[in-house]
Specification:
Layout: H1 4-33, H2 37-63, H3 83-110, H4 114-144, H5 148-159
Length: about 160
């Protein structure tokens, strides 16, 4: 049996994952609007991945005979700027998601809930990848600059990204 405390924190994480999906969609729309179609593609793919993460958590609660409580998803409050500024904000957002996932792990440890702990390990590893991906893009943007030729090349590369 899964505790109410664990159910509640996972329900909060479902909301965070869906919010992340909305956030990435809003960023994707912005990139598309300014003509950075590769950046738009990459962030749209990221949005779909975040929604999948939320659905995994959703299924986990159901599989453990818990009650899913979907909460309102806030409108992303994200001031758009240069691609470097946006990816810096993405990186900060991903670090906040990592901290939230670590809280789930901490509560599972406190309750000796090995099932949840085992399940949440996947998310911990996933967050290492999420933060690394954002940092790699930031490094490229900082290294090559945001002149049109550099942005074009980075945009082309990001347009080839596939989650599979």
């Amino acid at each position: 049996m899964i505790s109410e405390r664990i159910i509640n924190i996972i329900n909060e994480q479902i909301n965070r994952e869906f919010y992340s999906g909305y956030l990435y969609l809003s960023i994707s729309a912005y990139f598309r609007e300014i003509g950075l179609f590769g950046f738009a593609h990459r962030t749209r793919e990221q949005a779909a991945e975040e929604m999948e993460h939320g659905m995994k958590l959703f299924s986990f609660i159901i599989d453990r005979d818990g009650k899913v409580e979907l909460k309102q998803i806030s409108t992303p409050k994200f001031e758009m700027g240069s691609p470097t500024e946006i990816y810096q904000k993405i990186y900060e957002h991903e670090k906040s998601i990592t901290n939230a996932i670590m809280d789930v792990a901490k509560y599972a440890e406190e309750e000796c809930d090995r099932t949840t702990l085992s399940f949440i390990d996947w998310y911990i590893n996933e967050q290492v990848e999420e933060e690394r991906n954002a940092l790699e893009i930031i490094k490229r943007l900082k290294m090559f600059g945001e002149d049109k030729a550099s942005l074009f090349l980075i945009d082309e590369e990001l347009g080839k990204y596939s989650r599979s």
